[in-house]
Amino acid sequence: MNNKCIRIISVLLLTLMLFSISACGKNPGAGQTSNETAETPAEAGNAVGLGSELTGKGGSGIYLQKDVSIPDADISIHGAAVSGEYIYICAKTQEQKGVFYTPSSNMTALIKTPIEVNADFVHFCCSENGDIAVLTYTAPPEGGGENHIYTVNEYNKNGELIRQTALDEVLKLDNTAVNSMIYCDRGILLSLFNSLVLLESSGNASKVIDGLGSPRQLVYSADNKILAIGGGANGYSAIEITKDLSTKTTYPLNSEYIASYNGKGSESVLLRDGTTLYAVDYKTNERRDLISLVKNGITSSYYIRISDTAFLGSAANKPVLIIEQDEGIEVKVIKLATYDMSIELPRIVASFNGRSAEYKIDIIDYASLPEAGGISGLDKLNTDIIAGNLPDIFDLSRIDRFKLQKNEVLEDLLPYFEKSDINYSDLSSCIKSVSQVGDKAYSFIPGFKVSTYVAKSGIVKGEKLTPGEFVEIANSGEAAMFWKYMTRNDFISELLMYAGNDFLNMESGECSFNSQSFISLLEYSKTLPDKVSSGGEEKWDDEYYLNGEVNLYHAEVNDFALNGKAQADTLFGGSSDFVGFPCEGSFGSAITPFVHLGMSRSSAVKDGVWEFYKHLLSSGYQEEMIKAHNLPAFEKRLSELIDTNYKNLLQDPPKINFPTEHGEFNGEIKPTEKTIQEVKALLAKTNKILEYDKTVYDIVSEEANAFYAGTITAEKAADNIQARVGIYLSEQG
Questions:
Q1: What is the average pLDDT across 588-603?
Q2: Whole-angstrom distance, CA of residue 514 vs CA of residue 511
Q3: DSSP 3-state assignment of 81?
Q4: CA geometry: angle at 217 spanning 93 and 297, to 5°?
Q5: At what angle do helices 714-731 and 694-708 cross, to 10 degrees?
Q6: What DSSP state is assigned to residue 247?
Q7: What would the pLDDT profile of 7-61 be if each residue is shown by its tens digit?
């Protein structure tokens, strides 16, 4: 089974103004906040929760991203090279070919050049007369040849190949690690580890500078000096190389950076760290901040200076023009509260901030706030709530939606859909089923994945796996139920995530942990190992399914909607069924939202929040989200994705190959029309989120451990859980 993120949400005690919030295991420490004061709406100016994710240092101007039109739709930007007046933008096609473009004179469109590279390319550069050099990598033929084959292909601006040089031959290296390359007066200068190598037009190569330290990036300063920028034992530095490549001068850099770019005009050289694009005079270390990248949502992988207020860059693998916004436009700030921020959250905020002129979202991650005077980030969050400093948006993957709904903190989104050109009825049934409570919709989910379980056809009698049938199959002893890594704690987590609604209804506050279904599942969990054993001979994981030694296969339905089911069919000998995790009252599958957000009823910028939501539902962002392996929000696009996946799998079925006790197994992941209907039926009946309450989990885990230790029976453990959860619910009012 693939490791899945255990999504833990905890209960927000609004009645008592106390929070109980926990991490969900998604990249601890991600998205650390700045110590500077957060930009917040005027009505939230006294908020205790300071330290915004979007408060970047310097670069006070507000910048926007405008799309640059491109002649090809299915490409992803790889990088840029600039020299003098020549700018080349390189992209990869779906077939992984390298294609090149030059921007139009007004920088609003890309024009395709005749240059095309069929091999994998690593680095490229251009000269002042428009020639371009591309370092390519070609894998050696099977069964022999060099370990790596690197070639420098030089083209003129008409796409004609000028020369081709095999680096492995001229440098006498089996593994040529080139870090950067630029044209200079004498040829092409290559940055290798600790040295610079000159590749002359004759095809000869010679080492010209040695002892550089760590790998260096080669750029030109504004006054046309060659700079090798990088780090080393003594910190970051810019090494200036003379025009004849004979000597070097080292200038220490005080700034820590991620990437460097050519200087232009009065800017000596451009550098970028995690929050800011800035210019540095490398000789004096004088720094001038240009753009606060985080605050403005600028996520480009490269920057070409066009003017004092404009840059050419990329966003979501597409070219963009980054321009400074007029000072006369008032910017309204949207406050988004989270606790232990997910990886996805800053990405979606950056994509919106880079597009919106009127609104900017400011993330407050309370889990990342430094503790001061005994006041933790959790205390600060509590204090903000007590003071009435509610955010404009709640991250509901971290803050319990049930309590927010019950206390009427969340805004109903249906009126916003009705007033817009987005039809709520067009959303996926999965999203509508978890977002809607009665005639109101509180949750906003722009995309998702589905987690479930699959079994070999015929093992389960009905359309779903019930606890009773699950225990009956497990007790038959013919095969294990789960993969070899499932432990007792894993099972308790799965039980609460998939079947928690059977035993605890968070909306009504009713619980039934003392039911026979729960007791039988608790008794089964004792048969699992306390922890995963290490060492010893183990089979290939997939062989357990193939041999019928494991009954349940975990499947995730994502952008490759049919792959998981088709693979299960193959491993189970040709046919399998979605049966879900054992549940009594519902089907045992659940969605994992891409992000899960709620609008605050007290927000003064609701129109801005809705603009953010609309951005995430736009066709452009939906396609980017699909590329990140999520299912789209709209039913029609979801159906199209499944149909496309089906055609692609039929045309080029992936192969499954692994060793078994009886030799090599070879199979194909090849769906049928029946697979399509099964996946669509699964999506139609999935109506829960993969989540559970942290406090309830702790109670169940404590009593289950007492049962495992033999101090109480399963029935007593269930009674204890029922009583303790009942008290917990009553304390919340």
A1: 95
A2: 9
A3: strand
A4: 60
A5: 160
A6: -
A7: 323 322 222 222 333 323 332 222 222 222 222 222 222 222 223 444 445 666 7
